[in-house]
């Protein structure tokens, strides 16, 4: 650990000495292009809610945005920390995976399958669990992210499966923001070091691209159990997580080629169930990748054809130690393999200034879906292999029938070979009350079909396959620009959920799944933001959300009823030095084994833009060392969340 921090300090001194030579230079065109843009939420261009680029103020669906400036200033080191800033989202961790709850709904054991996760529009939920990985094993490092868009609510009318509670789209940076060589280095006192190197190039002819290599390692991870078993305490140094990533992007005019891959090894000491006095290593190896090709073709001044082709891979192996009846140590091997290809064709047609039509067809070919359960990869226990084809047709029409009123309508029909037939309509209305105020009203439906794991587990248990989950959501939003540069927003929503798929986690290693009781969810999400002439920025969000079973009004587990979030950034005695404060507060949550108390945690960071090429952040996360727990797993065990951590991060453009 001492050696690592010595290397980090030397690298920081090298950055400072090199950057000092450039400190007095006049900014170049590239440096000017890298400056942050205006952050008026109604003016930022978004593409997630309508599946085509438009200003956020013209979108029928609310879209929240986290920018690269916020990611850098608050030293957000993975997608978990980025998503935690969005209104209505609640994240937790078991030190191996991150778990996401949206608008009060987050099922134990669910790997974020009810939120569609995109990278520049490429679907990256896998085809076995529909899982969206949001931890250190996410494809894109934070320093490569230009912004993250989150569109809450039902999104199946455009996106189909998994857009159940919302859509998250991670937008990567263009060549003008990654010009030259980039070094990103971050470390904390808990033996976590993240190192990323990238090189970007933008040519006047229109060619641009970047490539990035990164490594993230954390050793000696503190056990999440409140009272870790005695046999594993002496093996904490073996509790580690290692991630290697490769990502690249190439653009030429309307053409984009992108790829990303992650290789992960996670190991953790565990107690052997057959002999609680002994322990051994539980291990996860994970390999994910995607390659995508996107192209926009202008057919005329009124129409454009958009093509998006991607291919993805997902490989997961877990090694679980146990004692064989004969006494020797053996390991259960659980091997999962997924391969799939997506094709999306969209035609955008605007016959006049008052109308916009979007026609689309997308399909997914699951060319390989399999998982095998064996002992030492020799004695077979269970083996399943299959494939599937899915197709969806959708249409959306935007009609500006007066200067102040716009109507959006659309629908989508999804069909799969596994007997899924779903129709998803959408209606929206935007009323521009004044130049500074607007009201949005929308209604939409969404679905989540049972994934491969849920289907095959039930077939193995000779049980019927669960029906698709369905949700109907009605919401109204008010946005306004008030005096003194305040911007405010309030969203009221009401959702009806049917056929919620739930696992019956019992003694059997093969889980049984069933459709749970109907659920009603409703709430309000409010935001407020202000920027002062001094450069200070304040963002507030408060969410009140209730998700209850309709028949008995029991609340869903691990779903906080109240969330409050604050981000504040203030220049100190110089414009390039900022103090940044983030506060997150939540009410109590209920687990299957009892109630977990609410808490408030604070992060305090000092960010220094030494010059246009060097940015340094030093801070404390969970400043007051607040101890709090969550229960994201089916076992409902209370797991301790991250304690106070001192962090240092450096972003250096060395060309």
Automatic annotation (TrEMBL):
One Pfam assignment: Plug
Zinc found in the keyword field: no
Region forming the signal peptide: 1-23
InterPro entries: Beta-barrel_TonB, Plug_dom, TonB-dep_rcpt-like
Record bears the keyword Hydrolase: yes
Protein family membership: Belongs to the TonB-dependent receptor family. Hemoglobin/haptoglobin binding protein subfamily.
PANTHER family (UniProt xref): HEMOGLOBIN AND HEMOGLOBIN-HAPTOGLOBIN-BINDING PROTEIN 1-RELATED (PTHR30069:SF29), TONB-DEPENDENT OUTER MEMBRANE RECEPTOR (PTHR30069)
Full protein name: TonB-dependent receptor
